[in-house]
Amino acid sequence: MLGRDHALSGALAFTAVAPLLHVTGARLAAAVVLTAGAGVLPDIDEPGSTIARTFGFLTGAFAWIVHKISGGHRKGTHSLLGVALVAAASLGAASWQAGARASGPWWHLVPAGLILGLLFSAAFRALNIGGHHGDAFGLALAALMIWKGWDLDLVTPRHVPMLAVCVTLGMLAHLAGDMCTHDGCPLLYPLSRYEFGLLPAPVRITTSKVAEHWIVTPLLIAGIAWFLWRDAGSALTAHVHLAGRLSPSLPGPSCR
User: Fold this and answer.
1) How far apart are CA 117 and CA 175, in angstroms?
2) How far apart are CA 225 and CA 12, in angstroms?
3) How far apart are alpha carbons 95 and 76 in whole angstroms?
4) How confident is the model at residue 12 (pLDDT cuts 50, 70, 90)?
5) Given pLDDT bands bounded at 50, 70 and 90, which one contains residue 236?
6) What is the per-residue pLDDT across 177-187, written as a single tens digit (0 to 9) for each?
7) DSSP characters for 32-67?
8) How far is CA 19 from CA 137, 145, 161, in A?
9) How many whole angstroms separate alpha carbon 70 and alpha carbon 67?
10) DSSP class per residue in 108-177
11) pLDDT level of residue 255 (50, 70, 90 thresholds)
12) Does the pTM of the predicted model rise above 0.70?
């Protein structure tokens, strides 16, 4: 799948489960964008991918290293083991950040800041938001999230921080998307190279062809819009009705 649709699938995944995590308002918006960025994260194993181009040479070189370590494109980072390792790393980064907020060393903020900056910027790049300024927007949003501590919100019964939840959801959405293509995903790599699929072979999609552009992308956008309306529509409607009831009645034209 294209980076755009991987990002949209990540956003869709978070909006779908947002009520279970009790995330609303600005936190919901930030988490949706963060999970969209995590939706392209598995492709960090490909130097030419959207996320690898985010910060030029720096992310390109890192992608080359990951490519070599993980066994190539659609190998280690597209497996359940890869998801677990990256989720654990994000969990550790959040733990360090929490320590820094509790009067710990400032440099404990760095791992979480790097992850947030990369994912927010990658989301804007994948969705073609902000143009050349998308990376700056991503870094600014990462700084805001670090400052507010939103990525440390404990959003599951097991008290998992938002950062780890978004990273995990986005990566799993990416794997699900690739499993709808003809290539599939080696979920059990390195134990097995078998490529699992979600759809029967005849109806799997080919990347960047008509089915993806005219069926997959519109369905993802419609799904995000529906879930966002489900999560925020009632609150918006209530505010509009309340504003209407509180606004003073305008005097009618005087009769002479």
Assistant:
1) 22
2) 9
3) 25
4) very high
5) low
6) 999 999 899 99
7) HHHHHHHTTGGGGGSTTSTGGGTTTHHHHHHHHHHH
8) 27, 20, 16
9) 5
10) GGHHHHHHHHHHHHHHHHHTT-SGGGHHHHHHHHHHHHHHHTGGG-B-STT--BHHHHHHHHHHHHHHHH
11) very low
12) yes
Tell me the C-alpha distance between 206 and 228, whole Å: 29
What count of residues does the chain have? 256
H or E stretch covering 195: none
Amino acid at site 23: V
> Which secondary-structure segment (H or E) carries 6?
helix 3-21
Is a pLDDT exceeding 60 seen at residue 234?
A: no
CB neighbours of residue 112 within 10 Å? 25
Report the run of H or E that residue 81 belongs to, with start and end.
helix 80-101
Q: Which pair of structure tokens corresponds to residue 218?
A: 């519109």
Which residues, other chains included, contact 206 with Cβ-Cβ below 8 Å and sequence gap of 6+? 181, 182, 212
- CB count within 10 Å of CB 26 equals 12
